[in-house]
Design goal:
The complex is a heterodimer of chains A (281) and B (285).
Chain A: H1 2-10, E1 13-15, H2 21-34, H3 40-51, E2 66-69, H4 70-78, H5 85-96, E3 106-109, E4 115-116, H6 126-136, H7 138-145, H8 161-166, H9 170-179, H10 189-194, H11 198-205, H12 213-223, H13 226-234, H14 243-257, H15 265-280
Antiparallel strand pairs in A: 1-2, 2-3, 3-4
Chain B: E1 23-27, E2 32-34, E3 37-46, H1 49-57, E4 60-68, E5 72-77, E6 84-90, E7 99-108, E8 112-114, E9 128-130, E10 135-138, E11 142-145, E12 159-163, E13 175-178, E14 185-189, H2 191-203, H3 205-226, H4 228-231, H5 235-244, H6 252-263, H7 266-279
Parallel strand pairs in B: 12-14
Antiparallel strand pairs in B: 1-3, 2-3, 3-6, 4-5, 4-7, 7-10, 7-11, 8-9, 13-14
Helix pairs in contact in B: 2-3, 3-6, 3-7
Classes of the chains: A mainly alpha (281), B alpha+beta (285).
């Protein structure tokens, strides 16, 4: 704790604000009207030129008690691109999550001014996450998603697993949150497994199976076995997809008959053993 | 004869395998937030004797699977009163839309051999080996939303009924459905029909849900399926997509399934409602 506090004291924190919902609506309408056939890059450059200097006027008065480490923000916005996008996402996910061993990322301060992870209300406050994707981390979003014309990368409008998994910044924060395990020496060890590929990450997080954190950790631990990793990620199912897609679908099908949320580690492993046999049969 | 393809007999009033038995669940009306804690109480009634005895013996239990988007699911079980689940959730555990989806379930507490003479044929003829945590009874989800302190976008009904000028009639019979507006699915009606619908809506709004909303959605989702690109930026389509993934529809069969999900089996619900209100009885199958 002392070490963390020293790191925190040495770094500058940037207070994060909540955009006014009416302003988000204005921006979204502007996007629909003028940028539909263009890409995200043009839109982000234009709104930052137009509103960047007077952003305070478009933020909700008051304190969100959410902060972003300024060094992390600088690093994320300025660092050059990675050739492997899943590796890039994984690395920045670790940077943004405050419980990581080396950095503070996005955090809140508790009553005694100690750094804490965000509660669920803060970590899903779309006003703050739009503020990050549209303004504070827009340079990163341009690097990572600039050529895309998918508005869900920059706007989060309604909460769902899918919308979070697609939003440029929320997906980074939430993948760490889903895989954070304080009982491990490397608390984000399973994040590496989740980000083995972008497709695997979305296949897991967009589905309701990811709603049960404890069981999804069992699932990822099972998938992190090196031998199994080769089978699931390097071979393809009869339908031509990577085998892990079939493996995930079977797990999802199990949840229609079983209360996965009530299963312990052994029960999940037994289930996955059976599913694996079906996959490779 | 059982018409639902469950791997073993499932007690569910809509998709189950017990024509003569019911699983009823009620949420106590005084749900509330108190001292930062959400409180809900659910009570259930099962009239099927074998499942009831499994519950009484502790081989099965009544529970509520609680979801809140994104990434929240927790199972709450009955305790002393085996027909009641009390839920308490800390305010800060729930995402900022403060929306809950409660799915009542009856699950096995251990591995059991399951045979139920009361199930529909041919399910009543077989023995089944069930494992722990297996769902033997389920009930449609109950959704609850609390107001939040801020609003993201203006909320409004997605379907808007519009009265045509006095002299005009819809081109396509009873109604014209227009999907080119950004915010609404617009339904154009003659003045006469408009007033008729208005009157019916005043008397019993459930009738319109059952007989009108279904074909409107069927038309709309078919259009979305065929010309997806044309609707991907429409506000109404995105609201439906955020909640129900309508852009992922891939065939006409899935459209029917999706409408059932959106309207929560409107015909069956209405028929039950009708029987209960006008005849004084109800049946879910």
């Amino acid at each position: 704790m002392i070490n963390k506090q020293i790191i925190y004291n040495m770094s500058n924190k940037e207070k994060l604000y909540a955009l006014k919902p009416s302003f988000i609506k204005t921006l979204y309408e502007d996007y629909l009207e003028n940028y539909l056939n263009k890409n995200i890059r043009d839109f982000l450059i234009d709104i930052n030129l137009k509103y960047g200097d007077e952003l305070a006027n478009h933020c909700v008065p008051g304190d969100t008690n959410i902060y972003l480490d300024d060094e992390i923000r600088f690093k994320i916005n300025t660092e050059s691109e990675y050739s492997d996008k899943a590796e890039w996402d994984c690395k920045y996910s670790k940077l943004l999550y405050s419980k990581n061993d080396k950095t503070n990322g996005i955090y809140t301060l508790n009553n005694t001014q100690e750094i804490s992870i965000l509660n669920k209300i803060q970590s899903t406050d779309v006003r703050v996450w739009n503020y990050l994707s549209l303004f504070k981390l827009h340079k990163y979003v341009i690097k990572r998603w600039g050529d895309s014309d998918d508005s869900s990368r920059i706007f989060i409008r309604k909460l769902s697993n899918q919308s979070v998994a697609r939003h440029s910044i929320l997906r980074l924060y939430w993948t760490s949150d889903l895989t954070f395990d304080a009982s491990r020496s490397n608390s984000l060890e399973l994040l590496d497994t989740l980000w083995l590929s972008q497709d695997f990450m979305t296949q897991v997080t967009e589905r309701s199976i990811s709603n049960t954190k404890e069981q999804i950790l069992f699932f990822l631990e099972y998938c992190s076995n090196k031998e199994l990793e080769k089978i699931l990620f390097k071979t393809r199912s009869n339908e031509g997809y990577p085998l892990y897609r079939k493996f995930i679908k079977l797990f999802l099908a199990d949840s229609n008959l079983l209360t996965i949320a009530n299963c312990n580690k052994d029960e999940i492993e037994n289930l996955l053993d059976e599913n694996l046999k079906s996959c490779i049969a | 004869m059982s018409i639902f393809n469950n791997p073993y007999p499932l007690l569910n009033n809509q998709i189950g395998n017990f024509s003569n038995y019911k699983f009823s669940v009620e949420l106590s009306e005084n749900f509330r937030i108190e001292n930062g804690i959400y409180n809900f109480i659910f009570q259930m009634e099962v009239d099927e004797p074998i499942i009831n005895s499994l519950i009484e013996n502790g081989d099965a239990s009544f529970c509520i699977q609680t979801d809140s988007k994104p990434f929240y699911r927790k199972l709450f079980k009955s305790t002393l009163n085996k027909k009641e689940v009390v839920i308490e959730i800390n305010y800060e555990e729930i995402p900022s839309e403060f929306t809950f989806e409660f799915t009542p379930l009856i699950i096995t507490e251990k591995s059991i051999k399951y045979h139920n003479d009361n199930a529909d044929s041919p399910m009543n003829l077989y023995n089944f080996s069930l494992q722990k945590n297996q769902i033997i009874g389920s009930h449609p989800s109950i959704k609850i939303s609390f107001d939040r302190g801020y609003q993201n976008y203006e909320n409004a009904n997605l379907i808007q009924f519009i009265k045509l000028p006095n002299s005009k009639k819809p081109i396509n019979g009873t109604m014209d459905i227009k999907l080119d507006d950004h915010n609404f699915i617009k339904i154009y009606l003659s003045e006469e029909t408009f007033l008729l619908f208005k009157e019916i809506n005043k008397q019993d709004p459930k009738i319109l849900d059952a007989v009108l909303t279904f074909p409107i959605l069927q038309y709309t989702l078919t259009e979305v399926l065929i010309n997806r690109e044309d609707y991907q930026d429409k506000g109404w389509a995105n609201i439906l997509n955020d909640e129900f993934d309508i852009f992922e529809l891939n065939d006409t069969e899935s459209i029917f399934k999706k409408i059932d999900e959106i309207l929560q089996s409107p015909q069956i619900n209405y028929f039950n409602y009708y029987l209960k209100k006008y005849i004084g009885s109800s049946s879910d199958q």
